[in-house]
Design a protein that fits this description.
The protein has five domains: about 5-170, Ribonuclease H-like superfamily/Ribonuclease H (Nucleotidyltransferase, domain 5); about 240-340 and about 660-710, Rossmann fold, CATH 3.40.50; about 340-420, no CATH class; about 480-655; about 715-925, P-loop containing nucleotide triphosphate hydrolases (Rossmann fold, 3-Layer(aba) Sandwich), CATH 3.40.50. The strands form five sheets. A seven-stranded parallel β-sheet has the order 10-11-9-12-17-8-18, sandwiched between helices. Strands 21-22-20-23-24-19-25 form a seven-stranded parallel β-sheet, sandwiched between helices. A five-stranded mixed β-sheet has the order 3-2-1-4-5, sandwiched between helices. The chain has about 950 residues and is an alpha/beta fold. It is globular and about 80 Å long.
Length: about 950
């Protein structure tokens, strides 16, 4: 039995090469599954402790005044760990620091066998929401007394190690055997543990009932969907009354359920729209409980009419909420299982055939690909869906996924093993479903595509519907970039390689050589085109040039650009002629190996055939999107973006229809019997007129319109404050940013952090962040900023909530869909009213078209668009009945501009104060 030394260090920084030192060490020794010894000591680091480290660990200068130097404890530590497996959560960090100190003290570096619990957790717990130690401990219900203290972290890591080693023994023999083939490229020396698990699994017959094998891959058995049908006999009015008021009602099913009249009102409105075959716009304020409300009605309609309904959401968070929280409640209420299916596009699902093919070709894999393969092997024994969104792949793993997603599986799949496909299983579940849950993207793709992307449906409910027009515009347009095109070309080239066809009995040498040559020529043409576009956009760059919300320079294609457009078009056609040639060679290869499909026993031919088929289709898509891109069209807005400080070919091409309303009317509202749109923000100034114009139903007479106010007591729970002493941003933008920074700092003291600051400009966010970093001591407040601090939106939100006193700066996506309930958020700062910058390409052309039509671009588009955005931002503050806080708007236009009243009329009635910043901060401190 092995002995493990689980090590955790707290250090003064992240890099021993930059003279960072150990601050605290904790070691747990495990032998024969038992803790036999623990060691813990603070260490005098011979340098100051940075404020961030003190904020993170709680260790202060006075704590380490009398602590030993590492040299004083080095011998004890060395003897404790020298004959053990060294285990750490991120082994390279801890062992690197430890060895640096040992060498400094005259000892040899340790070369023990190692185990990295981050790596093992990624492999054997692939569905974990995070692999940070604290969040893993929460997820696994491992007690963690003192996060970011060495001994406590080492104890948690020891518990995690024990759990991971046990997890290995739950896997089937074939999965473990596959992992053994690639384990040599992992950091952790786990081969002996896997070999032992293989021996035990060989004689474990019980696991055979849990898995089925396809293409040599053990996967979790697909559940048998045996539904006990139970008719709903009550008419809707009586049934909905029972649902809200009866003995087996929501009161019994939902913890702490509060009756809200608006929720029932919404249920009745949704059902009426579906039943009468009408389109509806239903606004439901925050806290209405709209998802439960519409599920009651959509499910009742589906069950009683035996008709599949579609629910489309914008965010995966809402999809997960529906599936994991709301649907189980509905099943309890209906007294029967609900046939519900989450349905996504092909790229989300793994192809077992293609993964098996790649697994047999692991000789040259780098570390990320090996880690990805190991993760997927384990995940397949746990997933019922095969949806990659269930796990987080490493960065290179995302590229590998393109090779093994169901997108690679074309018509060749029908030759054999038709039912061994997660995408086909998803299709079958969707066909049987009462309710089909999907996203706006797939809904819009289904609307624009000649190929049916969703099972047939007549009635659809679209939640978060204020996004529909923007998503539809994106899908009716083009989004291409150099990096993605290069990735696709590299994937083409991988296919035109002699080794790929080595085992295939066909003479393909000529096609491979020609295909590879054409791919290289296409790459070169793409390089030249991208560099030309980059230089053009960069050369025209002015201080006033428009920027995207993530800081890219933008260039709008206009009729006056005929010389530039003609040159670009010529270069594009040269690129596309090579793409056309690549497509021809792919088709020629398909014709050569096609006859082997019916006689080949292994899957190689089918994999290659389907990949060639997919690549030919991708070529066709590239040609369709680019062939007329530089031909200007009055009804389409086209623009180019570049990363000014990035590579000289980091180019992004965009186009969107100038007006998507007609397309939505034609493809959606005229073809479906009932489309119900719902959101917390569909009205401006109490009217649906703007939204109706946007989506193409402005002149429809038979629309059902209903706005349900939020049940939250905003008057008691919210204060709206607007400073009257801010400088004019147009006259002195730099002084305005200084004032923002000073206000944030002052407010932070009043609110003890707990602030979300929303910007409309990424450039202003960045400047404010660096000003704050200069004046704020990290011991006081932690400052996180979108696009600067590392991590996704969810990661930034979690980091913000981890620290007691923190400030989060966000733009773009932070205006909505971010839930920070309770005491974690006390103040929302809105820096500017969220008008779209007037120089954004789409905005410029829409304004121009409205002027041509004799309409006011500001009143008809800019203002209502900004009001909806403002309502979304305002909604970040109050997320439950007990929340309270301040909305601080640093834009005097809310009070002084004539249109300010339209913003105020669109949010709940709350007490408003318009005074000096210092007075407002004092009032805020008193009220909070």
């Amino acid at each position: 039995m092995s002995t493990f030394a689980i090590v955790d260090l707290e250090t003064t920084g992240n890099s021993s090469s930059k003279q960072d030192r150990i601050l605290e060490i904790g070691i747990v020794i495990i032998k024969q599954g038992q803790v036999i010894e623990e060691f813990s000591s603070l260490v005098y680091p011979e340098r100051e402790i940075p404020p961030f480290i003190t904020a993170l660990t709680g260790i202060q200068e006075e704590d380490i005044i009398h602590a030993p130097l590492f040299s004083e404890i080095a011998e004890d530590v060395y003897q404790l760990v020298e004959d053990c497996y060294i285990v750490a959560h991120n082994i390279e960090f801890d062992l690197g620091f430890l060895n640096e100190e040992f060498i400094r003290c005259g000892y040899e570096a340790l070369h023990n066998p190692i185990i990295d619990t981050v790596e093992l957790a990624r492999i054997f717990l692939p569905g974990s929401p995070s692999f940070k130690l604290g969040q893993l401990a929460d997820h696994l219900n491992i007690g963690h007394a003192h996060p970011h203290r060495a001994l406590s972290d080492a104890q948690v890591t020891a518990d995690l190690l024990t759990l991971l080693l046990e997890e290995i023994h739950t896997l089937p023999e074939r999965t473990l055997t596959h992992i053994l083939k690639i384990v040599g490229k992992l950091k952790s020396d786990v081969r002996p543990f896997i070999e032992t698990a293989v021996e035990k699994a060989r004689y474990n017959q019980s696991s055979h009932d849990q898995y089925e094998v396809h293409y040599g891959l053990p996967i979790k058995k697909q559940p048998e969907e045996l539904y006990e049908t139970k008719d709903v006999e009550l008419p809707f009015n009586q049934w909905i009354m029972e649902a809200y008021e009866g003995k087996e009602s929501l009161k019994k099913i939902v913890d702490h359920y509060e009756e809200r009249s608006g929720q029932r009102q919404m249920s009745e409105a949704v059902y009426q729209s579906l039943d009468e075959g009408r389109h509806a716009l239903l606004e439901a304020g925050a806290g209405t409980g709209k998802s439960l409300a519409y599920l009651l009605s959509t499910l009742y309609y589906s069950v009683t009419h035996n008709e599949r309904l579609v629910i489309a959401t914008h965010t995966t968070a809402l999809q997960n909420q529906l599936l994991e929280e709301e649907i189980p409640r509905m099943e309890e209420l209906f007294g029967r299982p609900i046939k519900v299916a989450l349905y996504k596009g092909k790229r989300h699902y793994i192809s077992l055939l293609h993964f098996s093919y790649e697994l047999d070709r692991s000789y040259y894999d780098n570390y990320d690909i090996v880690l990805t393969k190991a993760m997927i092997l384990v995940w397949l024994t746990k997933t019922s869906t095969g949806d990659i969104d269930e796990i987080q792949l490493p960065s290179s793993g995302q590229q590998f996924w393109h090779k093994i997603s169901a997108e690679q599986s074309g018509g060749a799949m029908s030759f054999n093993n038709k039912h061994a496909s997660y995408f086909q299983w998803a299709e079958e579940r969707a066909e049987r479903a009462d309710l089909l849950i999907t996203n706006h993207s797939l809904l819009c793709l289904d609307l624009i595509s000649n190929e049916q992307r969703l099972p047939a449906y007549d009635r659809v409910l679209i939640d978060e519907a204020h996004h529909l027009e923007a998503i539809a515009s994106r899908y009716f347009g083009i989004r291409l970039n150099y990096k993605e095109l290069q990735r696709q070309l590299t994937q083409f080239n991988d296919l035109f390689h002699p080794a790929v066809f080595k085992q295939i009995d066909a003479d393909v040498k000529k096609q491979i050589q020609q295909g590879s040559r054409k791919v290289e020529q296409a790459k070169e043409e793409l390089n030249q085109l991208s560099r030309y576009l980059f230089q053009k956009v960069k050369a025209t760059r002015k201080r006033s040039q428009s920027r995207s919300d993530i800081g890219r320079a933008q260039y709008l294609l206009k009729e006056t650009d005929s010389v530039f457009a003609n040159t670009s078009d010529e270069m594009t056609q040269r690129f596309l002629s090579n793409i056309q040639a690549v497509k021809r060679e792919a088709i020629a290869l398909m014709e050569l190996i096609g006859p082997l499909l019916s006689i080949e026993q292994n899957g190689d031919v089918r994999v290659l055939y389907s990949r060639l088929e997919t690549n030919a289709s991708v070529c066709e898509t590239i040609i369709d999107q680019l062939v007329h891109y530089f031909v200007l069209d009055d009804n389409v807005v086209k623009w180019i973006e570049i990363d000014v400080d990035g590579a000289s070919n980091s180019v992004y091409l965009y186009s969107e229809p100038l007006n998507v309303a007609g397309l939505l009317q034609e493809r959606l509202f005229l073809t479906k019997k009932s489309v119900v749109l719902t959101s917390a923000t569909l009205t401006t100034n109490g009217s649906f007129d703007y939204m109706k114009r946007l989506i193409g139903v402005a002149k429809w007479k038979d629309l059902y319109e209903l706005s349900i106010p939020s049940p939250y007591d905003y008057k008691q729970r919210v204060r709206l404050m607007v400073p009257n002493d801010f400088p004019n941003i147009k006259e002195d933008p730099e002084e305005f940013i200084y004032s923002i920074s000073e206000a944030i700092y002052s407010i932070a003291h009043a609110t003890k952090g707990r602030m979300l600051v929303l910007f409309t400009s990424y450039d202003m966010l960045r400047k404010t962040y660096y000003l704050l970093k200069d004046v704020i001591n990290p011991e006081e407040f932690m400052v996180f900023a979108q696009g600067i601090s590392t991590g996704s939106r969810d990661r930034l939100r979690k980091n913000f909530q981890t620290f007691d006193q923190s400030i989060l700066l966000g733009t773009s996506s932070f205006w909505e869909g971010v839930d920070i309930p309770g005491d974690d958020l006390s103040c929302l700062v809105i820096v500017r009213l969220p008008f779209q910058p007037p120089d954004q390409p789409l905005q410029v052309m829409r304004d121009y078209r409205l002027k041509q039509q004799g309409q006011s671009p500001f009143m008809n588009h800019s203002l209502p668009q900004a009001i909806i955005r403002f309502k979304q931002g305002f909604g970040r503050l109050i997320r439950s009945t007990t929340d309270r806080g301040v909305v601080f708007v640093c834009d005097h236009r809310l009070i002084e501009a004539k249109y300010g009243r339209h913003f105020l009329a669109s949010i709940p009635d709350v007490p408003l104060m318009y005074k000096s910043t210092s007075t407002l901060v004092q009032e805020m401190e008193k009220w909070l």
